[in-house]
Design brief:
Keywords: DNA-binding, Plasmid, Transcription, Transcription regulation. It comes from Alicyclobacillus fastidiosus. This is Lrp/AsnC family transcriptional regulator. By secondary structure, this protein is an alpha+beta fold. The protein has two domains: 46 residues, Winged helix-like DNA-binding domain superfamily/Winged helix DNA-binding domain (Arc Repressor Mutant, subunit A); 79 residues, Lrp/AsnC effector binding domain/regulation of amino acid metabolism (RAM) domain (Alpha-Beta Plaits, 2-Layer Sandwich), CATH 3.30.70. Helices cover 33% and strands 19% of the residues. It contains five helices and four strands; from the N terminus they run αααβαββαβ. β2 and β3 form a beta hairpin. α2 packs across α3.
């Protein structure tokens, strides 16, 4: 079955809401709370995962495992080399997020490093490998006040509505 935003119903949203709070919550507990059978929850979760709407992963706090420096790097690269640059960035383990953006810098990445020294090495050595890099803007995160992965509220509605 192919799901998309048009056929994600209120039950799917309620199930997702529970899993946003605790990705390890049992299907039985979710079923009891939303008023359906455990089998229904199991099938719905399988469908949501199969079509790419839902991913159940463990989220790691990088600071707690020794990755103390998080940098957001804006990148301006020649448009004709954009795909090559993105592919190179995908292959760098410490680059954990890549997105195309509007504005002066068409690429934005997030890099996580263990120290400022290792960030310096990344900036001066690995960034040099990117083709036709015009300019960068490096911002280091000093404190994080919110890092949330919730897209559906406790009422089962999309937060962006």
């Amino acid at each position: 079955m192919s799901l998309n935003v048009q056929n994600v119903d209120n039950l799917d949203l309620k199930i997702i809401t529970h899993l946003q709070q605790d990705g390890r919550k049992s299907f039985r507990d979710i079923a009891e709370d939303v008023g359906v059978t455990e089998r229904t929850v199991r099938l719905r979760v399988a469908q949501l995962r199969e079509c790419g709407i839902l991913q159940i992963v463990g989220v790691v706090n990088p600071i707690k495992i020794g990755l103390q420096v998080v940098a957001i790097i804006q990148i301006d690269v020649e448009e004709s080399l954009m795909d090559t640059c993105i592919e190179l960035l995908r292959g760098i383990p410490e680059v954990r997020f890549i997105t195309r953006t509007t504005g002066e810098y068409p690429l934005l990445i997030q890099v996580v490093k263990s120290s400022y020294e290792s960030l310096f090495v990344f900036l001066t050595e690995k960034m040099k490998q990117l083709p036709q890099l015009r300019k960068t803007n490096v911002m280091v995160e000093l404190q994080v006040y919110k890092n949330d992965f919730h897209y559906i509220g406790s009422d089962g509605k999309l937060l962006a509505e």
